[in-house]
Structure formats: C-alpha cells, structure tokens
Design goal:
Strand content: under 5%
Mean pLDDT: 87
Number of domains: 1
Helix content: over 70%
Low-confidence stretches: 100-106
Strand order of the largest sheet: 1-2
Radius of gyration: 24 Å
Amino acid sequence: MNSNLSETLQRFLFAIVLVISFFIVFTYLLSMGLGILVFFSTAEGLKFSQDTIPLHPLFIIDVTIPVNVGLYFIFLWWVFALCFAAAWKYRKSLSRARESFSSAAKQSPFSNNLLAMPLITSMLLVATIVLNHLQTQGGIPTGSIPISDPFLGFLIVSRAPLVEEIIFRIIPIGTFLVTYIFLAGKRTRPDFSWSQRLKTSILSVLQPEKAKETVDLKTIGKGGLFGGVIWAEWVMVFLTASLFGIAHYFGGWEPGKISQAAMSGAVFALAYLYYGVQAPILLHWYFNYYFTVFDLSSSYYSAEVDFAYFLAVSTNLFLGILMWIAVMIFSIITIFKVLRRKPKPIPVPEPPSFASL
C-alpha cells in the first residue's frame, strides 16, 4: 500500500478523532456541573445531602466515622476536579493540542491524558458491550445491584472510583513500583542522594513513567507497551485486575461481571503506569459517575439533559467503533507492509583471486 495514502488516511482519521475527543471532554465538564446541580438544587438531593453516612477511612479495617453526605460528595467532586487538572497538564498540555492538527502524522492522540481518555473509555465501552452480549448469549449473566434511593446509588458510584482505585491499583501497584524503581535506581543512578531517592519514591506512586525516566529505566513512552512494561509489572496488572473482577462478584454481581471488571481493571492499571495516579480514577469515574449523573439528571431536567445524554452516549459509541475499525485497518496495513517487504539478499563472498594465493 502506498505510504502517502497511509499517511493521508492517518491524518484524516486523527483530525476526526481529535474533534470528537474535544467534544467528549466538554461533556465530561458538563457532567461535573450536572452533579452539583442535581445534588444540591433538587428537593430530594438537598434532603439527602443533609444526612450522615458512615465513612471507612482505613478501608478494610472496621473503623467508621459519621460524615455529612453533602460534604462527602463535595470532597469526591474536588478529587475528580484535581484529577482532571492533572490529566489536562500531563506531558503535552491540552491547551496546546491544537498544534497537533498541523502535524497529525507525527503526533499521538495519546500524548495528553485528558485527550486520550475518550479514546480509551470509548473503546473499552464497546468492548464491554460486546463481551456482555457474548456472555449473555452463553448463559453467563452480568447482573446489577439494585438500590432503591437513586441519590444513595449516585453517591456509591461516585465513591467507588476513588476508594476502589486506591485499594486495587494505587496501593498494590504503587508499592511494587516504589520497591522496583528504588532498587533499580540504586544500580542506574548510584550518584543519587537520599533526598533524591525519597522524591523518586514518591514520584513512583504519583507518576510512574516520570519516575522511571528519572532513573533511566525503560518507559512506555520510549519502548511502547511491550517494551516499556517489564514482566513483573504485567504480573501486577493481571493480578490486580483479576482481584478486581472477583471482588465485584462477591460484591453482589453475577459471574459475568468478573471478566468484565477484570478487563476494565487491566486497562486502568496500564493507564496508571503510563499517565499516573489520576488516570485510573478518571477512567473508573467515566463508567460510574459520568453515565449515572446524566441518567439521574434527566429525571429532573428532562428535555435538555435527555438530548445531552443521548448525544454523549452516541458520540462515545461512535468514537469507540471508529477506533476499533482504525485498529483493524492499520493492523492490516502493517501486516501488508511486512509481507511485501523484500528480504535482504545474502551477500555472497567473492572467490579468492590468484594474486592472493
């Protein structure tokens, strides 16, 4: 296939993806505003916000503290807002993303965390729908957890991205990364002082990719997914993903949720390794808060929100399908190029001349 045609196709696709991604990022911000609006401007939400709930600050240890629901929701909201700010600034700031239009063939849509988020989530959404359909057809239900109070359900799904990511990703993978990068750094950067090693250890939890760069280790940015992630990290990715899936089953879901949650958990873990601590929280937020707030808001602001909800869902699905088609097309192009590549001729040594004998 002509390389110019491949490059033109890549530029065209990148431009479309970039526009759609910007729109979906706008819907993220819209959903954040809707959360505050529906929680504190409706009679039911305002009444619920004045209640208290038990908070488990130590997660698995049975210690509870009663907290005000409204203050707790505001706290979660600000955590998400800070994660968005971190994703906005990751590597290439989103405010400079317009430069990518002029060099689409050379830029990656995954260079900015927030701009890459619609790509990752939409592809994962389509994969989840397909997996759920296949499992249902095979008699393996996914199920759901019915909650009578919609605002209690909204609070629960808003809490899960922070709490579950701390338990299943940040603590286990972060602990491994601190140990691995600290030990590897003693070999690659023996000139580091203890204060530098301490800073690198903290950075290992917050921004693993940057911590690896600091101590001259292989990174995803330079070596790709399979060149920048060592085998031990892959073990942690699949181990935490498996535990994440099993935990959902014991949390009240049907067996089909195990594979669904495990697949999502693996993507969340890889995003953590590449983008940093904010990435898995935001990806989890998308599947919990984002869709729930549109659904809940449509009950109170039906006409406007119903259209926004429909537009958000359909745009995400369209982008997900488009990305999977793009993956298949460029995979075929790559295979075609490899098959057409002519093998290098084996050099034949010249026979010795009589003069050399």
